Amino acid sequence: MTGWLKNHGLLIVNLALFAIFLVGMTLTGWNTYNEEQLDHGLAIVPLSQYLASGDFGEAVFENWESEFLQMGMYVVLTAFLFQKGSSESKPLDKPAPQDADPRKATRSKNAPWPVRRGGWVLALYENSLSLLFFVLFAASIVLHAFTGAAAYSEEQVEHGGTPVAPLEYVATSQFWFESFQNWQSEFLAVAVIVLGSVYLRQRGSAESKPVAAPHAETGA
Q: What is the pLDDT averaged over residues 18-34?
């Protein structure tokens, strides 16, 4: 069991932190939502009703969409672009293992099944990581549109307006404000680690170059 935990510790800890912060967001969001309900002379709602509300869904999915967009773009951009001295970049002056054509590789029995299968299956598989993130981004942005429309419509009705459909909500500045405010921060964080890893180190981290490595050395 100890060996299994060591082998999967990075995933387990990140999933645990995700669960902790999601619960924290849920409880504090529920409290904030009920405070707003009371401010408007409305009754407080139970947790189950809050979880089914557009307010909760919008808060979750607008953040998920930015994370998946960031990671999908990062996977694609690091395939084509370089940053001298950064551990986040492929080497500038030598071939990178990631660029090797799997069609020319020795197909051992331990190779992933799509590599052994070849053809269109391999063509899909060699782009599957970015595809995963972009599919999750698309799903998140659709869910953001639906839940955001529900929350926006509720606010509109409270102020004497009319509810909107998801497509109508996507056409509002509110939808894009919610998206852009998250997207800009995600790409700022990426830029910081790309540049920061040129000059700064974290001993033991896979995201850092060795502490004694020259600043100009590119790649981990």
A: 97
- pLDDT for 194 equals 95
Q: What one-character-per-residue DSSP string does 71-133 give?
A: HHHHHHHHHH---TT-TTS--SSS--GGGS-GGGS---TTS-HHHHH-HHHHHHHTTHHHHHH
Helix intervals (H) in 159-203? 166-170, 173-199
The token duo for 44 is 């407080």
- Give the burial class of 58: count Cβ atoms within 10 A of its Cβ; 0-12 exposed, 13-18 middle, 19 or more buried: buried
Radius of gyration of the chain measured on its C-alpha atoms: 23
pTM: 0.92
User: What is the rounded end-to-end Cα distance, in angstroms, of the chain?
Assistant: 30
Segment 108-159, tens digit of pLDDT = 888 999 998 999 999 999 999 999 999 999 999 999 999 999 999 998 988 8
Q: What's the rounded Cα separation, in Å, for the pair 51 and 46?
A: 9
Which of 83, 100, 29, 101 has its CA nearest to residue 199?
83
